[in-house]
Amino acid sequence: MSAMSRAIRAFGGGGASRRNLSVAASKEAPALAAAAGLVAGRKAGRRDPGEDGSRVQWVFLGCPGVGKGTYAGRLSRLLGVPHIATGDLVRDALASQDPLSKQLAEIVNHGKLVSDEIIINLLSKRLEEGEEKGELGFILDGFPRTIRQAEILEGVMDIDLVINLKLREEALLAKCIGRRKCSQCGGNFNVASIDIEGENGAPRMYMPPLLPPPQCESKLITRADDTEEVVKERLRVYHDLCEPVEDFYRARGKLLEFNLPGGIPESWPKLLQALNIEDPDNKRSAAA
Ligand SMILES: Nc1ncnc2c1ncn2[C@@H]1O[C@H](COP(=O)(O)OP(=O)(O)O)[C@@H](O)[C@H]1O
Prior knowledge:
InterPro entries: Adenyl_kin_sub (IPR006259), Adenylat/UMP-CMP_kin (IPR000850), Adenylat_kinase_CS (IPR033690), P-loop_NTPase (IPR027417). By secondary structure, the protein is α/β, with parallel strands linked by helices. The protein has a single domain (53-275), classed as Rossmann fold, CATH 3.40.50. 48% of the residues lie in helices and 13% in strands. It contains twelve helices and ten strands. β7 and β8 (205-207) form a beta hairpin. The chain is globular and about 45 Å long. The N and C termini lie far apart (53 Å).
């Protein structure tokens, strides 16, 4: 059993206070603590990426379709830390021969959340594998998604920043339905063209499609849970269960709200600015 699962047991077992959980976690979760590159229970201040980005322990929150995967992936490459998306861990489990996969498909393809226990087991396993490879730091995407997950994470790790991505509601559904992935190279694309009129002082929002190159065109696949009906359910679940997680981190002073102004070319430099990270593209053009 993984360290994080033991922490869950302590948490769910009744009577275990958060303090006990932290103590239990620091004793029982050396793997988890080492994977995070810190001593569990030590409350460090926010780690700015600076020269050594490898130690950031960040979380991305945001509705389905907002672009968590895109921006978390870009930052992970820039800072050299692993991007750990629990949705990907779930999809890997779904594709496996695991007896759990049928049960998981039933939940995921209806837009519901899988149980906290299952998700923490998957995440814990991934962190332990990372630790074995010497990974330091992480950017979590899609976790935590419930208050209970947030409390468990807070008890065993020091999250230093939570980035809450926001996009106008009208764009989210179209962005999910337009998502495509190349089954061969794994590239992510989007066929949706979003053009929302500016209203009540808000500027017009234009997000052009991100089309695949010709060699990927015939190999595109769509996620089974990216149908209109399922996306609407995922958005409902987000508002009910995941939005309170934003309040959880806001109350702890860890939440950075970021309103996406449009597509990647507009949003990426602004996000880097909000995070106090030097834009590598500007650096290159300044050096040229
Ligand atoms: N932290 C989590 N807790 C529970 N279920 C999760 C979690 N992360 C992912 N899942 C499951 O995997 C599905 C896909 O997740 P993800 O790719 O993050 O989707 P989204 O585009 O909705 O943010 C979710 O709808 C849910 O069923």
